[in-house]
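User: We ran a pulldown and think these components assemble together. Before we commit to crystallization trials, I'd like a predicted model of the whole complex to look at. Sequences follow.
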Amino acid sequence: MEIATFNVNSIRARMDLLERWLKEKRAVDLLALQEIKCTEENFPFERFERLGYDCAVFGQKGYNGVAICSKYPLYDIKKGFADSLFDNQKRVIAAKAGDYRIINVYAPHGDLEGEKLIYKLRFFSKLKSYIVENFSLKEKLIVVGDMNVARDDMDVWDPVLLKGSIGFMDEEREAFEDFVSIGLVDTYRELRPNEPGFTWWDYKNGAIWRNQGMRIDYILTSPNAFERCEDIDVDLWTRKRRSPTPSDHAPVVAHFRDE
Amino acid sequence: MEIATFNVNSIRARMDLLERWLKEKRAVDLLALQEIKCTEENFPFERFERLGYDCAVFGQKGYNGVAICSKYPLYDIKKGFADSLFDNQKRVIAAKAGDYRIINVYAPHGDLEGEKLIYKLRFFSKLKSYIVENFSLKEKLIVVGDMNVARDDMDVWDPVLLKGSIGFMDEEREAFEDFVSIGLVDTYRELRPNEPGFTWWDYKNGAIWRNQGMRIDYILTSPNAFERCEDIDVDLWTRKRRSPTPSDHAPVVAHFRDE
DNA sequence: GCGGGGTGCG
DNA sequence: CGCACCCCGC
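Assistant: Here's a predicted model for the assembly, 518 residues in total across the polymer chains.
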């Protein structure tokens, strides 16, 4: 089973390119999409159906929005945290596919200070309690998505320059580490300890062409799921082009043994 | 010499398609463009230069704007009517190319009543006096552009339905006829008396696919220029496609004998 | 820099 | 319907 996480930065703006990627490059079994930026009414269900995917969508107008698209039927679908304090922003959707439990996350962007930063830090503690209270780390749990945090110096193109900037501040990293510490494995870093594995490059300054990126999209697993994880990579096929305009993120794809 | 008039509905949105038309279909000698919708600063001079065109531009931010692009050097360039009552809207540019005097016009859209209609009617009387006072009908004069008026029943797809609607109201037609009566020849109607020659189709309802159009773009000539006019047609190459999005107008192209 | 939203224009 | 404009989010 091949699982991809991909912040598409608008599913409607990206559908043509995404379809080409699935057809010409990589027919992954499960797609976890972030920032679909549309409501369920405007989600291109039919196009995914034609490609063989069953979709669960938690959408919102203009901003945020997450979806899971799977070649295996989805069940046990949970939209949001079931917490009115958080669920006005559509950032989490969970579902089971086969014996895997997928939790798809779009963490807040945050800010250098103030309410947006507070909200981002609280989001990770909410995500932690949500997972611990609703699921079990003994499941084949896969938590994927755009976490908007780089864990370590290796995960950013210039750790000195970027220290203290959004996505690489000490508070953010601590909040994210505290979440990961419930027992999740950072599969990319585990399997590729010597590769940066950037997943995001700013649209500005042609950052992709200078490889000035950050690793902020993750595939995190419970130990039971990690046991089956055979490989993981960042797929640059969509990102390294000028037209049609790609997302600023690249998909991360992990392969899990069928057993 | 092949001369085209083309309301591009934004030169920046249309440049790729226009370039393909010039390269793959029809390398006209002179292009009269309307609704470029940009200032001179934002006009793609370099791309036209690479295609071999010398450009004279009378632009404005967001709306209106006209340009003449020519493979023969342009001279005697006149921008606007030199009348502050009209020249806040950039709708007229004139230039000589070879021994032809080209006057490129984007007439106002108008309305069913009120100030916009008044302005449109006044525009044609201003255009008339502008031409009579500045130029001579004895020149090889070519007045082209989007006149936003259909002359006759044959020039609209449903004269009964459209009677009294914008572009086909009696007042508009009379004002336009009064202008043409200075001694201009409607070359398309003269050379193709039995063809509708629509030049514009509404974006709505897929009007192009039902041929629900109007003939509102003209190549009008003085008798001396008409003597050299060998053929004229509406080129549907750009219009009859879905992607990239075409202008709602099609170019009209006339061929003038070199002598 | 590239998305979304809205509004104005034709 | 598809441009332009603006403001906003990331």
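Chain A has eight helices and 14 strands. That may be worth checking against your pulldown data before setting up trials.

User: Thanks, that helps.
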